[in-house]
Design goal:
Layout (H helix, E strand, L loop, with lengths): L13 H7 L2 H15 L8 H9 L6 E6 L3 H18 L4 E3 L8 E9 L5 E14 L9 E6 L6 E7 L3 H14 L11 E7 L2 E6 L14 H14 L3 H6 L18 H11 L5 E5 L1 H15 L5 E5 L3 H4 L11
Parallel strand pairs: 7-9, 9-10
Antiparallel strand pairs: 1-6, 2-4, 3-4, 4-5, 5-6, 7-8
């Protein structure tokens, strides 16, 4: 078959052809390009992805990393999701390596104002390239990996731009303690999953004082505790006194200890984040639990049934805590 010399020649550019093509055609062309190039994007490691898009030598690549609790990474992933949406088509998403596509996870935000459970899809394992002028003045890549043995949120940059990467990571971490953290100032429940502590929104709790009959002097002690954490907080600081407080609530089963704790937690909503931890969480991941608290700013940690961790309820005495 020969071409007709009289037929008009196409003057369309590649960009024009791709613009007019369907999504399926563009996807097929992308696969063909990867095969012809002999380096599918899903095979490239995050480091290879970063050096390619940053236009630098592999030896010039710097990684500024944060390794923290899983909930912190999920919230950082949510912030990354918002940045990806903000900058749209300028952002290029890459594979986490190992021949795998980018993966996404679910972040539970609890009930909305209509009583419906709310979840958002956040990056789980991927790397994203942000050109200069989007996320920062310099082009950078952001890597997130939420696997429990490799929890990492990292900014990949050139060695020359490492200062920019460090400032950006510090900004992300500072936002964990701001309104950008959708779990901050709420009542949360700690649990253990795959050996890791995870913190999620607690189910609705009964927080009415009227539902709990206690002596007046005990309520006064509770109010003093709450004032030290809220209305008198700045006064205590100005006097050079600490604002960290602890409260031991003890008594036999069934007297209302858990209800009282929930009343206290409800009193601090918005000002403090409350993390409710059961014996399983304390026994397996107490250090991680306190590491998680650093994600939320001022935090009240409730160690429920602590006697199950420190001893046995039937080992003597009637009180439990």
């Amino acid at each position: 078959m020969t071409a007709d010399p009289a037929a008009p020649k196409s003057t369309r550019t590649v960009d024009e052809i791709l613009t007019a093509a369907s999504d399926e055609s563009r996807a097929a062309l992308k696969v063909l390009g990867e095969l012809v190039g002999n380096e599918p994007a899903s095979v490239a490691t995050p480091a290879q992805f970063a050096t390619r898009h940053l236009g630098i030598d592999p030896l010039a690549l710097a990684s500024t990393r944060f390794t923290g609790p899983s909930t912190s990474l999920a919230i950082l992933g949510n912030m990354l999701r918002l940045e990806i949406a903000k900058h749209g088509d300028a952002v290029i998403i890459g594979s986490p390596g190992d021949g795998l596509p980018p993966t996404w996870s679910q972040l539970d935000l609890g009930l909305d104002e209509h009583g419906a459970n709310t979840q958002v899809t956040v990056p789980g394992r991927l790397v994203a390239f942000f050109p200069a002028g989007t996320l920062a003045a310099k082009g950078l890549c952001v890597l997130v990996d939420d696997r429990h043995w490799s929890r990492e949120f990292a900014i990949l940059s050139s060695n020359a731009d490492k200062g920019v990467a460090e400032a950006l990571l510090a900004s992300f971490r500072e936002r964990l303690k701001s309104g950008d953290n959708p779990l901050r100032g709420r009542v949360l429940q700690a649990s253990v999953n795959d050996g890791c502590i995870r913190v999620g929104v607690s189910p609705a709790i009964d927080s009415r004082r009227e539902g709990l009959i206690l002596p007046d002097d005990l309520w006064r002690e509770i109010d003093v505790f709450l004032a030290a954490a809220t209305t008198r907080r700045e006064l205590l600081r100005s006097l050079g006194l600490g604002t960290s407080r602890g409260l031991l609530i003890a008594g036999p089963p069934g007297v209302g200890k858990t209800h009282l704790v929930r009343v206290i937690a409800a009193s601090l909503v918005g000002q403090y984040t409350t993390i409710l931890a059961d014996a399983t969480s304390m026994r397996h991941a107490l250090a991680d639990l306190y590491a998680e608290s650093d994600t939320f700013g001022p935090t009240l940690i409730v160690l429920d049934d602590i006697d199950l961790v420190l001893g046995h309820r039937d080992s003597g005495g009637d009180n439990t805590a």
